[in-house]
Every structure is written in C-alpha cells, then in structure tokens.
Amino acid sequence: xxxxxxxxxxxxxxxxxxxxxxxxxxxxxxxxxxxxxxxxxxxxxxxxxxxxxxxxxxxxxxxxxxxxxxxxxxxxxxxxxxxxxxxxxxxxxxxxxxxxxxxxxxxxxxxxxxxxxxxxxxxxxxxxxxxxxxxxxxxxxxxxxxxxxxxxxxxxxxxxxxxxxxxxxxxxxxxxxxxxxxxxxxxxxxxxxxxxxxxxxxxxxxxxxxxxxxxxxxxxxxxxxxxxxxxxxxxxxxxxxxxxxxxxxxxxxxxxxxxxxxxxxxxxxxxxxxxxxxxxxxxxxxxxxxxxxxxxxxxxxxxxxxxxxxxxxxxx
Length: 316
Known about the structure:
five-stranded mixed β-sheet, alpha/beta, globular, 10 helices
C-alpha cells in the first residue's frame, strides 16, 4: 500500500462525514448557472440567473445558494467567473472581477461575496478554466495534462492547463485578447473596448453581431464571408497555443462554436497551414468540441471544488 492509498478520497471522506454535496456557480457574460451536485459530479439541480447588474445578479445567486444551504447544506463551493479576475489569495481584492469589458462589473467582489457566509472550502477561477477542469475530469481532455479550452461565445476566453493545472504567473491566461495580423483588405476596427481588433474583438459573438448588425449568430450561413475572418483569428490563436505551450489538444466550445460546428475543422486546417510543418502537431482531430457540450461550463465549478477537496484530503 502506498502512502496515498491510506488517505481517504474526497468522495469517501465527505460522503461519510458531510453532506456529499457541492455548490457551484458559473458566472457568464449573458447568464449565470448555479449547480448543486454530488461529490461524484452528478447534477441534482441547476438554476439559471440572467447576468444583469452586479447587485441584481449576485443577489439572485445568493437566494439560490441560501435555499440550498437551508435545505441540505453543502461541503464546498466552486465559483467560476468571467474575468479578468484577481486570483491571488494574498490580495485584498481576491475573488474580484478586475478591469472587465462587461459594463458595470469592473472591481466587483464575486468570490468572497458569494462564499464567505457559508464557511466551507471555496475554489475560485475563471469560467473557462473551470470548463477546462471539467473536461479533464469527465470529458474530452481525460488523461491529458497539457491542453487548452477556448470558449467562443459572448467573448473569447482561453483556459490553459499546463502540467495538470491552470497557469498562473501574475495572472490567469488572457490569450483571447492578443492582437493578430488581419486578413488582406479587412479593415473593420474590431469590437473590443480595450484592444479593438484582438481575437475577441474579431471573432466573438459580440464582434460578429456588431459587424453584421442584429443578425443572430446561429442563423448565419456556413459560407458567409464573415467566417473567413473568424477562422483566421482563431487559427492564429491556436497556433500560439500549439507552438507556445505545446498544447496536446485544443477544445473549442461556447455558443458560437456550438452553433457553427463547421468552424472547428476549418480552424485546424488553417492553423496547420500557418505552422507549415515546423513542429509536429499531434495527429488530428486536434481542435475538437468539448465532450461535455453545454455542461462543461456549469460542471466547471463542481470539478474545481472536488479537486480542492481532494487536495485538502491529501494535505491532511
């Protein structure tokens, strides 16, 4: 028996001594999803809250969490939010949204505001890192220590997992906001309020709607010219991930990607053309859809909290 064999897993420990339940909150640009799940990741209840002002949104989430706490309690929380975020536990603003492009949300306390009154362990990270952790736990990245999860929806976020953990440094990954060379003749200024024609400013659902007007992204024909610029920007982002960190797989989810599945093979083909055989990218399909589909995001904070409990169990 190894040392770790004698240590009870989080599932065993909290099934026997606690409620065996986890509360998760995924805060997105257009909606927030509250999830109550078992320690094994089985969803019991999900409640969707529209993302409006910080106070109205967080108050509605408070009400859901309070109801669950009174009814059954829970042993841990996971909170996965749009960003940028302050993820430094030593910081006075740990758990805050920082300088975001989401109107009125800059410098909002999210993590501690939602969790402090419950007194249970809390895992806090970006929504896209949460989705990546869920895919590594139950989905298309099982058994992979180095990969990336791109969410292509209201914005463009990147969850970057290196050696099995989200990258940190002085902050989390924000590769969706890098500027990339433009297609010849494309001089549309872009929609990002910070970086104009960055990847998010060119390829997100917000950018597509701003460029075309009020047309619903899901109704745009596959051969529409706008997809050329979207594919080009995302292929360059994937090239950075392949050549910069050696990602073994790239997952692309989110509302735009889910509604336009033809984009993924086009992005991979363009990325491989850009790389031109210089590095040995793993055989395809290399750019793939998340296996959990639309549940990758909501299950992200659950997977984060389970990982935290496992870490705590080993540490004790």
